[in-house]
């Protein structure tokens, strides 16, 4: 089976709150029992966007993704971030594959993007990805966070050696030129991984 998610060009500049327009494609090959999971942000995508940009892309099963942003302003401002997540135990071996998994951000993407930018990309099974941004502005401002995460091991009778592992993640060197702000990018190609990017900014 082949799963593919793609973000293509065509997003427009939004002044206050930018939500990317996602063009997703999913392909399934039923002739074999082989998975090939791919997520990709195409070239010339998301350039000049402004504001809050949140993207979750997943190809695979039992993945958890979250982009959280908390903003508080004023005297004794309190910004809170709380996460609790656990992936399922994948005993159904039809959901697990040693086939190559690929996660990519292509060239000429996110040029001159400005704002709070959070991107999760995963190809695989039973993974957790979280991007958190907490901002508190004012006298005695505080940011409080709480995190509880776990994954359950996926079925893998013969773990891959480094030589046999063909999973790949890629960010083109020409992406993100001129980008400004808080930028979080999480990429996973594989099974049973946890990635957390957390930014806390109390500003007084």
Automatic annotation (TrEMBL):
Organism annotation: Oceanisphaera avium
UniProt signal peptide: 1-31
Protein name: Adhesin
Keywords on record: Signal
């Amino acid at each position: 089976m082949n799963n593919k998610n793609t973000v293509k060009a065509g997003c427009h500049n939004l002044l206050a709150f930018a939500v990317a327009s996602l063009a997703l494609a999913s392909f399934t090959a039923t002739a074999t029992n082989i998975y090939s999971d791919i997520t990709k942000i195409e070239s010339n995508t998301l350039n000049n966007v402004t504001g809050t940009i949140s993207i979750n892309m997943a190809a695979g099963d039992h993945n958890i993704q979250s982009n959280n942003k908390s903003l508080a302003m004023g005297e004794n401002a309190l910004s809170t971030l709380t996460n609790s997540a656990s992936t399922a135990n994948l005993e159904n071996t039809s959901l697990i594959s040693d086939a190559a998994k690929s996660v990519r951000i292509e060239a000429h993407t996110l040029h001159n993007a400005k704002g709070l930018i959070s991107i999760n990309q995963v190809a695989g099974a039973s993974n957790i990805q979280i991007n958190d941004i907490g901002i508190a502005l004012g006298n005695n401002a505080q940011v409080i966070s709480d995190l509880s995460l776990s994954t359950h091991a996926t079925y893998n009778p013969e773990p891959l050696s480094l030589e046999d592992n063909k999973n790949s993640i890629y960010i083109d060197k020409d992406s993100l030129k001129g980008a400004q702000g808080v930028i979080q990018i999480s990429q996973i190609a594989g099974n049973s991984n946890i990635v957390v990017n957390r930014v806390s900014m109390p500003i007084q």
